[in-house]
Fold this protein.
Amino acid sequence: RLWTRESGMMTTSILLNLGNTFVDLRRFSEAFASYRRILHLDPSYAIAHYSLARALDRAGNPLEALSVYRQATMADPYLPHAYSNMGITLLNQNRPNDAVKVLEYAVRLRPISAEFDNLGDAYGDSTRYEDAIATYQKAIDVAPNRIYPKSYYSQLHYLIHTCNFDRLREACENLENTLSWELQTGQESGMTPVEALVLIGTYTDHSLFLRVARNFATRSLARVKQAGWVPFSKHARMKPGKRLRIGYISGGFRHHPDGKNMQGVFEQHDRSRFEVFCFSLKRDHGTPVQRKLQSTCEHFLDYTDLDNYHAASQVNQLGIHVLFDVNGYTGEGVRQQRNIILALSPAKLQVNFLAWVASSGASFIQYLVSDKVASPPEFVQDYSEKLLLWPHCYFPSDLRQSGGEIRLPKGRALNKRRSDLGLPRDGPLLSGFNQLWKIDKRLFLTWMDILRRTTEHHTTLWLPLFPDVAKPQLMRIARAKLGKNATTRIVWTNLFDESEHLQVKSLATMQLDTFLYCGHTSGADILWAGVPTVTLPGIMQSARVGASLLKGLSLHGHLVARTAEDYADVVVRAIRSLQASGESKWLSSVRAKLATEKQSGSLFDVSKWVKSMESAVSMAWDIDSFSLNPRNVIISGHVF
């Protein structure tokens, strides 16, 4: 009755509002009917075409949506929202070049921050990185008070990943102000967690990181509240004579660094005292890593298809006493917002472990696993959690079981192997096997200084094309510092097949760790390959794991530098000690120590690592059982 009693214009307005309401309620078929009724009355009504396309897209019909968006632009060539949404849909369909064309027109129609931001995303996805960086700057320039965090953080992302150090430093002059504005106004920070680890402390006071981490945690709590969920308040108590129930939850229990690092852990747990559960949040297709995890963990449960609430509910119903979060603000924790599971507090004690190498800032996480090198006691104020500090490296590695024997060829065979891989046949080979976005200007200039000081030794820097977009900027700096010889002093290779990467990495003379975010899994890999690694610990935990790995092999006195100058000196002394034969007493002794510690040291001793874990869990549970607040726990070298 409502549709027919008013004029035609009022009818279309009412139908449009009704359709929009149905979309908000996710009653898509009724929304489609409302919009199509309008188009039956007026086929040229562009807003109805646009609204129908938007509804189709939200309902999961992007291809049909694109067709209807085009009809909207034909009906009204000056409707900016239609071009903008069409471009976003094209981006989501992995058609960035098509999206660029559409979004460039949207910007001409409506040159506002949101449109420039969309276009910047399209340029970035189509590998036009300089255009992306410049377009994000336009979005910032036209914004009120020149604050537009979405574009600002996207710009920082591309500046980091292209190693555009000078532009990055210039852009980061506004980082502290932007973060402070977000935090003071109660906004959710647009900065990605990993980039927060890289930038905060480098371009701002490092103490700002904990405030940002708390902002990340607040997002999860807000999602819980918005969904109408209530965190669990009833938790299982441990009954006399029963085992303590430990859960590990992760999207990485598969062919993934976390899965590979953890694959030897579960079979070592003492099943007379602990009942262990793995909650997998992302399945793979039966890879050897996941098969081993499934076969060695007492209970391996696949929660891939459960939403956050039902996953948390299952954990709670199973009576898990201590839950280890092996996601944090990484992987599925961010992409699928799986940290909401922890925000629902399904277990009495919850522990930040392994994947996220910093404080969670979360009130619902009571403890964090680390050690006294990665998290020195004087840095406890940087954590919202209480610390469970291992007596050795907290980082688990299964390489003693899964890494295989490393065979390094000698003499001519070594020269031929290097040549076959596109490496120089002889001379010192310094590897930097980390993702290139972990490089900062101070580090790269230090590397150039090492090459300059060892020119007569024909030293070569060996870098992975990971990501390859960083190579042009790095080579520009190298040419400025080394001149025309830069192209022969730096060799680039693609990533190697996993079946051979450890053998290939063993060809390096030394590994150069990164400063801001050092090697973790890659750091353990290169040490297992028998390559001495020099590292410089920073303030953040993510910048100290390299030193922790070396402490686990009793090599920290040889290879942990105190300053960037000391870092360079350690490498230069090692290279200058090389004789014509390529041998060095110092390097040989370090390699021999490394070979011994690989078999007897704590870093690759999964059994010892598990005993420390069980001691820490037991102590934390005992503290809670006596109704005491969580407190820092330092595990002694003896298991008790």
Summary: DSSP finds 30 helices and 13 strands in the chain. Residues 1-8 have pLDDT under 50 and may be disordered. Residues 606-625 form the longest helix (20 residues). Residues 317 and 611 are 27 Å apart (CA to CA).
